[in-house]
User: What shape does this take?
Amino acid sequence: MEGAPAVRQTATGQNEANRVCVRCKEAESVTTIRSEPLCKECFKKYIHTKVVKRMETFRVRNVPSDGQRRLLLPLSLGISSLTLLHVLHLHLARQKNRTGQTGFDLIVLWIDLSHSGTQSRDPLLDAAKRMFPQHTFISSSITDVWTSVLSSLYSQDTQLGHDGNLPSLPEFLSSLPSATSRADVSEHFKKRLVVNIAKHNNCEAVLWGHTATRLAEQTLAETAKGRGFSLSGQISDGDSALGIPFYYPLRDLFRKELVAHAELVEGQLCVFLGPNDKKQAVSTRDSSIDALMTSYIDSVERGYPSIVANVVRTAGEKLTKRPPQSSNVCAICLLPYHDDLEPTGQSNGNTSQFQLCYGCRQSVPQGCLTGLFEKPSISDKR
Ligand SMILES: [Zn+2]
Ligand SMILES: [Zn+2]
Assistant: This one.
């Protein structure tokens, strides 16, 4: 507003002069959340309520008489998934206190993204295990998904060479044309692995640690990459396109609010704050679409947080869940896709050897796949 006093309000209001909390009207505020000054206790309650409200499906009274429900929580060791684990941990303890039982068990999954094949140890993982010893932790490596990707590709084309010279996952990723392609494909492989592990461990749903901020980034990035068709099946709560329900209990919270929550309320979570949690700008050179969207949403969120919330709401609720009209399932991302959605108006069937959705065809050009997978022909040099 013009002529307004020069007191700048930060996103979390940490620099503001202390005022009385608007909720309890007693304690001094420690932060300003969505223009409300809140004290420590009320800020904590605010975060917890937003999460627990999204977990209605998993109340104690909904537990079947013949067994416990299991939910998989993939842990990236970033502040979002750690905050989710922390809040759900307290939620389960409260359920147990009140009713003697819990609405679900948590299986916490950590994925080693190092491609080394031998699972490396992350000191942050040890810290998380020490903090939450009551929950089951399992680990997996991103290389574990490669076999299932290969079999999706092979099931589409039996002409592919089984000559023992299969490319490794790092070879495949390094053959992709850009940082955007690699980030995109890695993200979908991670999701496939999480779904495989959830099914394998009899989990009935996956609880993702995506905040409103992250969902907005994903919405814009997926649209930019040509996968807008699958958005509502990817970011809504409930049935997903991958055959297991997804839930996003942090969908009503911004990343900055979780950072403030760690800094002001739950100091032990601060070890999980990464350099990105405070970064202001991303170099645009060599950035993937995802990184640019992160930077963009970060800047929008500082001035216009309601726009960010709106992006997610629009994609999740206003786009109708369109059941797949065709049996085409993309060999990379496993999302059902419509062949008729080729934006250039060309049919994709004639030149494609592999069934890939529009988005994956941009990330993984056919030449890249055939180059890696085709048997050398007899006339080739030995
Ligand atoms: Zn208060
Ligand atoms: Zn795809």
